[in-house]
Structure formats: structure tokens, C-alpha cells
Amino acid sequence: MSVQELETIFQNKIDAEVRIEPKDWMPEKYRQNLIRQISQHAHSEIVGMLPEGNWISRAPSLKRKAILLAKVQDEAGHGLYLYSAAETLGISRDEMTEQLLSGKAKYSSIFNYPTVTWADMGVIGWLVDGAAIMNQVPLCRTSYGPYSRAMIRVCKEESFHQRQGFESLLVLSKGTDEQRAMLQDAIDRWWWPSLMMFGPTDDASPNSVLSMKWKIKRFSNDELRQRFVDMVAEQVKLLGMTLPDPDLKWNEERKHYDFGAINWEEFWNVVSGNGPCNKQRLDARQKAWDEGAWVREAAVAHAEKRRQRTGSVAA
Amino acid sequence: MSVQELETIFQNKIDAEVRIEPKDWMPEKYRQNLIRQISQHAHSEIVGMLPEGNWISRAPSLKRKAILLAKVQDEAGHGLYLYSAAETLGISRDEMTEQLLSGKAKYSSIFNYPTVTWADMGVIGWLVDGAAIMNQVPLCRTSYGPYSRAMIRVCKEESFHQRQGFESLLVLSKGTDEQRAMLQDAIDRWWWPSLMMFGPTDDASPNSVLSMKWKIKRFSNDELRQRFVDMVAEQVKLLGMTLPDPDLKWNEERKHYDFGAINWEEFWNVVSGNGPCNKQRLDARQKAWDEGAWVREAAVAHAEKRRQRTGSVAA
Amino acid sequence: MNKELFEYTLHLADNALILGQRNAEWCGHGPALEQDIALTNISLDLIGQARLLYQYAADQYNAMDVGGQAAVAALLPKPWKEFNRALQEDDLAYLREERQFRNLLITELPKGDWAMTILRQFFFSAFQYLQYQQLQQSSDATLAAIADKSLKETAYHLRWSGEWVIRLGDGTAESRRRIEAALADLWMFTGEAFVPAAFETGIAPDPAALRSAWDERIGSVFAEATLDVPATGTWSQGGGKRGVHTEHLGYLLAEMQVLQRTYPNMTW
Amino acid sequence: MNKELFEYTLHLADNALILGQRNAEWCGHGPALEQDIALTNISLDLIGQARLLYQYAADQYNAMDVGGQAAVAALLPKPWKEFNRALQEDDLAYLREERQFRNLLITELPKGDWAMTILRQFFFSAFQYLQYQQLQQSSDATLAAIADKSLKETAYHLRWSGEWVIRLGDGTAESRRRIEAALADLWMFTGEAFVPAAFETGIAPDPAALRSAWDERIGSVFAEATLDVPATGTWSQGGGKRGVHTEHLGYLLAEMQVLQRTYPNMTW
Fold first, then answer.
1. pLDDT tens digits along D213-222
2. pLDDT tens across B42-55, in order?
3. Does the structure show a pLDDT above 80 at A315?
4. Which residues are registered as beta bridge partners of A144?
5. Which of A5, A196, C115, D201 gives a 20 to 30 Å CA spacing to A275?
């Protein structure tokens, strides 16, 4: 079959909502696009452990400590599913880790902001996980089978995290003046970075067109961002808090909330390495990787010794 | 002159209270004895920085933080004077450090106990520095000149530390119930180890006889210990606290306080390496030494570059 | 009697909490994702056990008569005395002072490298497993139930850490060097568990009776790991069970308790 | 006006305290006794400066009328509000929360290795020296007097740290590698000092005016150290002056404040 014929079959499958599986033929660009996106998503889970991990040791109750630990652990699990999904496309976890550490692969810029108070834990669950879910739910139907299946598991757990996050904020919102002030402060700091999580506006989003055609993506950045604003603008009322945007208001005509201009200069700054914690996050991953090297080597060496012993017994 | 004549001259000087100076002839055993004692004393100052250093970051007021920092810094200074005094006997600071780290040279066992609460800072000043001064004041008249002069400076500062320590305990003793309980607890933990600082009883003290003859030492361990008990048994009343010894009581006949039996098994255990913090203290010194190596090397290399440049300019 | 049970319950809870807290420091920093997840699991199990035990200790206290409460007053968190409400699990975890903690010293030591963490976990789990086995038979129904529930978890911790001891001992030269260094640091902290404290009487089983089974377990794993077991009967550290801790615990508590100290008696 | 001066005084005090606290971590652990002593001296100087500045801030507050006090309420330590006594230096150091601290981010970064500590001290002292020089001329007599007293100390810190930058830059390959790594970590934290905060108006001199003199000082020492000065005008971290700190400060405060949080309002 010619490449053109293969491409036609491929696109027909996509259009018919048939999942592409690892052994199926796929355009090289589709494969590369997926590797980029899945590994970026996996890296985001792993780097995303750090800002929340920052408060595990200081969680204010044992119940919250356990919830937070379990949540960060889930993120490690998501990283595992996603690395596995990407591996079906012919790249190893070690290669992906190399790309993360060298800066070649990206991760979500939101994790380059510091977690400054305990309230950040709940607000991350609510806004950051909320934005992530908004991005991710459509990915449960994405055209590549292993990715879609990984996302179904991820989304289920993420929704749970988001509910937990919001629940912890409800507790704060009913708490003392200090707790309410802490909550408002956290919302003020995380609101705009959360909006940036949907990526550049549609006209400035280079990879989007092809991703839509191949049904890797199903909604544009701006569509998803608007949905998120509409959702959060209502939820924040339940907390008795406000969003730090004087331009936020319901537009009866559009049946959507209008909102103020996003500081794209900050966005590109953080993406290009100049966020408050970019270096700190990569240094932490590099350190874990380097300090884990002897452990991974020992595990391999021991397994090899075992194998040889079993072999010689069998022989 | 024969060695015997030299020895006679030497002992006459000693008996006439003339100080021995670095260039004077001295018996090899006198030299070795002094090196052992002075370097042990220097090491004690340096290792002694660690238990107190443990509370610098947590001192409960800025005034106390500054006092504690300055005190620990003074101990570094004492270490410097004493290493310098020992160096006049033909041993380098690096050699002495090697001996400390290898375990060949000892330091005062008192520093192998952990500092558990803030009250330990004051109690160390009062009891540990108090016992040290009791040991050290006679050393201001010790027969070896550089050692005697170093000790005059050391003792002056130590007395100041002891007064400061006691003053901080007076504050605690007038404080809240918690502060008083913290103080009594610290006294209970440090009392017996402080008594052990005077070393084994006279009949079990191997180096003492010669040291007395050479006027390196001037009072026996038991004499000094008794003076210390007599002093502290009175001072503790000013604090409204008690010493943890049911046998402690004034003996009208001896005009001294009687006191209970010391647990010499614990003493020898700690001396031989089995104290609560022996390994921790040496590990800390080893770490500082190892991590400082590149710094010391850089300083030497830079000085050498400078010297060469100056040389070539001059040439 | 009540006092001993209360203090013993705190001892068990403190062991679980402090080691859980230490292990949690690895979360996000493990040598590989799988190990990160496994150690976090252990940490979660331990914190879960601590919660059950603190709740039980609080229940005991709340049910005591005035005389019983007075007898354990020295173990209670001071700030709580002004809250005017029943004692709760978090009061015990977050508001007691260092001298009131009854955990074994081995649980509070810094996490060190992976070898230190693994070996400490192995030593501790081997003890805790035997301790919970004894407690399953306890006449105290609540302790027996908690032990029963926790035993499955601990069996897993023991197996997992034992496998890692074997991997590191019989892995590379580097892993062997590291686990031997960890052994040199840790061995002196292993004896404390077996020396009965004043509160280990009556309902609390005698820990000294567990020593030989523990030795056997260590011996068999070490044999497979090609490691030498240090001489038993050597000198051992102690103090944790009477609240005299290493210099490490204070820092751990300052960090762990900071929010409860800064914002006392709030709901989170 | 009063508010700005109060907040500015806290900013100066927090800078000195937090860096003093960081440097004190070296006490007993320095690369050689002489350096241990020298860095402890710097730490002592900084803590001494912090005490004068906190005392002055407390004096300002205690002398304010009700309106003035209300305007700075958000900067005050909450527990103090129940002490029913005048504000004191230690209340400001020990009982404010992280979001209330106004120090530059560079002062709170972990001490790192000797190269990191030295280079941070050099960058900071070079700024503080210029800042105190400006303040010597201040119309606020107390600030002018504190600056005047502190300037001699700071001149020494600057000279000492500058000499070490030269030693490390022009020492061994290893020392050069390390100071270059420290530079890569620190440079992005150097710009914050020069961006005026809302409280740097009126009595507080304009820090932006100090940039060129600072650049010059850095340039001349770096030249001698054979180090390259990174491009100026690159992106810079910020947030410390409005209380948004790095993830490091919370841990430092938890440790530093633990006794005052555990035993509030006692005399030590």
C-alpha cells in the first residue's frame, strides 16, 4: 500500500472514531505529536508532585496529611500510566526523562509557581486540577487507544482530587478570619496562572490545527478556557470569595462570563524558563534522578545475579 | 649536657614556677603529655560547638540568639588559641584534626550527650562550663608558657559564659511553670555527666601523677570534683531547683557536701564511643572537614597564584 | 494501669507517625516512580495506624475519671488545656512537645539515602510485625483490633523492605558500601525496642520476648543479602520511650507542627 | 507615610535577620576555624542590625495613633494582639507569618555550599552597603543613625566576601566550577533589590538609583575573580517585598520561631 492509501485508511478510522492502536500504521507526525503531548503530560504529573509535596510534612491535620500524600502518590501513578502509553509509541521512559531534564521536553508551567501557604493545596486541587480536567476529559476520547485508556483512569482520579480540593476550601471558607484570608490570598495568586493553563489563544497555538484534525484534541484552547471561567465564577460564590479580576462579569448575550486580559508576557516568560521555580523544579528532578542512579543500578545488578543463578540451577 | 642534667634544670624551673617556653629543652614525655592534653582540650572546644550550635537557629529571642552565637564563636576562638599553643610543640593543626577524626585523640565526653531543650543551653553554661572552669583555672598557672597564656584568655571568656548561662537560668527559674519544669529537667539530665567531666577517681587516673609532678595539673580529679559539688549545691538553691541526687547533703565534719556514687560504667561507655552522640559528633566534624577541603585548596591555590604574580612583577 | 495503657498507646502511635513522617519526605524524590509510590504507601499505612491509635488514646483519656486524667496530665498537650473540648487525635500529634513523645529513636533519624531508609524500615517493620502479632492476642479489644488490621500492612512493609535489603546487599559494590554504612549508623538504635519501658507492663506485651524471633528474621534476610549481622548484646541507644530523644526529633516536630502551633484549635 | 516607614523598617530588619539566620547555620560547620569565626561575625552583625531595626519598628508602632495603627494592622503578629502589652522586637521577629515578611528572596535561599554562601553575601552586602550609605543621609534620624553604625560592619562584610569571590573564582578548577554554579542559581535573585516597592517612597531612598554603582562593584570584583558578569537586564525574580516568598522561607521560619510559637509571651 502506498503511504497515501495508508493515510486515507488512517484518517477514515479517526473520522469513524475507531481508536488507533500501537501496531496500527500511523503518520510519523501523528506519532511525534502524540509522544510530545503524552510525555509532556507525564512530566507534568511528575513535576506537579513537587509544589504539593512541599506541604506534606506540614499538613495541619493527620487526615489532611494522608489525603495530600495519597493525592501526590496518585500523580506518580498518573505519570506511570502516561509514560507507559508513550512507550507504546517507541520511546523509553529513560529517554523521556532525559528530555525533561535537558529542557527539551516541557511540562505544565503552572508548576513553576511556589506553594506559599497551606491554602494553596486546596486551591491547586480546585483550580489547577479543575483546569487540567477541563483539558483532559476530552482526551478520554482521544484517537490513540493507549492514551485514551490512560486518560480515563487519570480523569477519574483527578475529579476525585478536585472534589477533595474544593471540600477542603469549603472548610477554610467556614473557618476563622485568618483561614478565610489565607484562602482569598491563594485564589488571588493562582487564578491567572490557572487560566494560562489552557495555553495560548487559538490564533497563537501552533500545534492545534493538526491535533484537532487527528482528534488528539477536540476543543480549542479558548473554548476550554471559557468553560473553565464559567464554572469557577459560579463555584467561587459558594466559598464566599472573589476572583481577582475586575472585568469578570456575566454576559447575558454570550451566555458566558467575560473576563479580563491575560498577561501573556508572564506566560511566555514562565514557559521559556523564567518562572519563580523553573530551575528549582528541574534541579529537584535532576537530584532525584542522580541520587537514584545507584539504586536503579543495584536493582538491575541484583536481578541479573538472580537470573544467572536460576539459569545455572536450571542448566 | 647530659639528659640527666637537662632534666634537672627542667625540673628546677618547674619547681621554681618558671614557665617552660617552646625553645626550651623538655622531656619528650612532657611534650607528648602536653600535646595530648592541649589538643584534647582544643578538640573539646571544637566538638563542643555542636551541641550548643544545635539551638542557635531556634533560640527563643534575638538577644539569646546573639549571645549563643557569640558563645559558640568564642569556643571556635578557644580552639584556635589552643591549637596554636599545641603547634609550638611541633604538631600541626591538620595532624591534630586527623587524630580527632580517626578517634586517636579524644575530646570531652560531655559533648556526646544531646541537647534536648532550650534549657540545656543555660545548664551547659552553668554546669558544663562551670566544671570546665574548675578544671581550667589551675591551668592558667600550668608550667608550659604558651598553654598557660592561652588558658588565661580561655578562662576569662569561660567565666563570662558561665555567668551568662546562670543568668539565663535565673530568668527561666522566675518564668512560667513550663519554663521551670524545662529547667529542672535539664539539670536532671546534665548533673551526673557534669560530675564525670572531672575524670575518673584519683586512684583510676593513669596520667595524673606525672602531670602533677610537672605542674601541668595542680589538683587531683577528686579534689576539683568536690569543689564543684560544693559550689553547685549552693547555687542550685538560688534557682529554687534541686540536684538529682538523694545522697547529696552537707557534711559538717568534712565541711563539704557528700554526694552519691557516680555511674562509672556509663562514663567508660561514653568514653569508649558508646555515648548517645559520639558517632553523630565525629560525623559532623568529618563532614565539615571533607566539605571544606575544596575551599581550603582554593585558598591555597589562589594565594600561590598571587605570590607568583607578585614575584614576576618584582622580577 | 490506665496510665500505662495510655502511654503505651501513645508509644505505638508515635512510632507510626514519626516514621510515616520521615518516609513521606521521599514523596516526589524517590529513585524511581515505582519506589516513590511504594514508600509513600508505607507512609500512608503508618499514618493511618497512627490515626487509629491516637483516636484510641484520646478515647481512653476522655473516658477517664478525674484521678485517671490527673495521672496522665504530664503527657497531654498544654495548649489543648485551654480549648475546653474533648481531646482529639490531632491534639496528640500536633501539640505535644518533644519530651512528651514516646517513639523509638530509630523512627526519628533523618531519612538519609535510600539504603538508610530501607534498612531502618526493615529493622522497624521486623519489630512492629512481631509486636502487632503479640497485640492481636491482647485482652484490650481495641488494641487487638488495630493490630489485626495493621498486621497485613506491616507484613507487606517487612517483605518489601527485606527484598530491598537483599537487592542492595547483593547488588553492586556501591549499593553494598551504602547499606553497610547504613548498618553502621543504625545498628546501635535497634536494641531500644526490646528493653521494656515502665509502661510496657500489664496489657502491653513484653518486648524482650520478641528479640530472638527478630534476630532470626534479620539473620535470614541478611544471609540472603550476603551481609554480616553485627554482634548482638553490643551497647544500644535508648531514651525515646521516656522522651529523651536524639537532636533530630525537635526539627521534625517544629516542621510538622508549625500550622497547628501558628493557628491553634482550628478546623482544616 | 507612617505605614511606608514602618514597612520599610521591617523590610530592612527582615533582610538582616533572615540572612543572619542563614549564615548562622554554618556556625560549627565552616571549612576552617577562621572562616567559621568570620561568617559567625557577619551573622552576629546582621542579627544586631535586625534588633535595632525591629526595636525601631516597634517604637514607631507604639507611638502611632489609632488610625496609624489600623493602617499597619496587616503587618502585625496575630498572637501579640492578645498579649495586651506594647509591641516588642521579638514579637516582630518571631510571631509574624511568612506572608508578612518583607525580606529580599536572596536572603532566604538555602545556604548551599561555601561558594553559594559567599556569593550571596557578596551580592547582598554590595547592595546593603549602598543602601545604608543612602540612609545615612535620611531625614529620619533613627534610620540614619542605624545606617551609620551598620555601615562599618557592612563594609567589612563586603570586603571579606569580595575577597572570597576572588579566591574561589581564581582558585582551583573545582572552586571555579562551584562559584559559577552558585552564580547560575543566584543571579536571577539579584534584581529584586533595585525594583522599588510601594513602601520605598518618601523617606525610603529609591533603590533603583543604586543599580549602576552596584554593577560597578560587582564588575570590578568579578574581573579580579576572572568571572563573567551575566547580562544585566535579564529577567529577575521578585515577590519578597510584598511577602510572596520562595518555598524555602516557610521552613526557616518554622524552625526559627518554634519556641515562641510553643511558649508564647514568655521571658527568656
1. 999 999 999 9
2. 999 999 999 999 99
3. no
4. A20
5. D201
The two counts, helices (H) then strands (E), for chain A are: 13, 2
Between C28, C170, C172, which is nearest A49 by CB? C28
Contact C175/B at CB under 8 A: no
- CA distance linking residue D265 with residue D87, whole number of Å: 11
Touch B-A: 3+ C-beta pairs under 8 A: no
The whole-number pLDDT of residue D233 equals 66
Q: With an 8 Å Cβ cutoff, are A297 and C172 in contact?
A: yes
If phi > 0 it is left, if psi is from -120 to 50 it is alpha, else beta; for residue B190 that is alpha
Q: What gap in Å lies between CA B85 and CA B39, rounded to an integer?
A: 9
User: Minimal Cα–Cα distance from B95 to chain D, Å?
Assistant: 14
Q: Are B107 and B132 in contact (CB under 8 A)?
A: no
Side-chain-side CA neighbours of C240 within 13 Å: the count stands at 30
- Which residues lie closer than 8 Å to A236 by C-beta, 6 or more apart? A187, A242, A243
Q: Which residue bears the cell 567531666?
A: B197
Q: Could you give phi then psi for residue A20, rounded to 5 degrees?
A: -80, 135
Q: What is the pLDDT of residues A229-281, one digit of tens each?
A: 999 999 999 999 999 999 999 999 999 999 999 999 999 989 988 899 999 99
Collapsed DSSP state (helix, strand, coil) of residue B20: strand
pLDDT in tens, D208-267: 999 999 999 999 999 999 999 998 767 889 999 999 999 999 999 999 999 999 999 999
Torsion on CA atoms A56, A61, A63, A68, rounded to nearest 10: -20
Dihedral angle, C-alpha D144, D146, D149, D150, nearest 10 °: -110
Give the pairing of strands A249-251 and B256-258: unpaired
Residue listed under C-alpha cell 565534719: B253
Closest C-alpha to D149, from D62, D216, D50: D50
Spatial distance between the Cα atoms of C97 and C250, rounded to a whole number of angstroms: 9
Instruction: Using DSSP, state whether A199 is helix, strand or coil.
Output: coil
Contact C98 B277 (CB under 8 A): no
For D44-71, the DSSP string reads HHHHHHHHHHHHHHHHHHHH--HHHHHH
Q: Dump pLDDT digits (tens) for B76-108.
A: 999 999 999 999 999 999 999 999 999 999 999
Cell 557534711 sits on residue:
B251
Contact of A301 with chain C, judged by CB distance below 8 Å, is answered with yes
d(CA C233, CA C211): 11
Q: Give me the amino acid identity at B44.
A: S
pLDDT tens readout for residues A158-213: 999 999 999 999 999 999 999 999 999 999 999 999 999 999 998 877 667 777 88
In order of their start, the domains of chain C are 3-262 (1.20.1260.10)
The pLDDT value given to residue B63: 98
Is the C-alpha dihedral spanning B53, B56, B57, B60 positive or negative? positive
Distance CA C12, CA A245 (A): 51
Rounded CA separation C234/D204 (Å): 65
**Cα angle D37-D38-D43, degrees, rounded to a multiple of 5:** 95
The band of C1, judged by pLDDT with boundaries at 50, 70 and 90, is low
State which amino acid sits at residue A115. T
CB C98 within 8 A of CB C236: no
Bridge partners (DSSP) of residue A258 are A249
CB–CB of C75/C6 below 8 Å? yes
**How far is residue C234's CA from residue C246's CA, in Å, rounded to a whole number?**
19
Tens digits of per-residue pLDDT, A98-139?
999 999 999 999 999 999 999 999 999 999 999 999 999 999
In B, residues 176-215, which contact C (CB 8 Å cutoff)? 178, 185, 189
Q: Pick from D268, A134, D196, D16: which is nearest to B67 by CA?
A: D268
Residues from chain B contacting residue C257 (CB–CB below 8 Å) = none
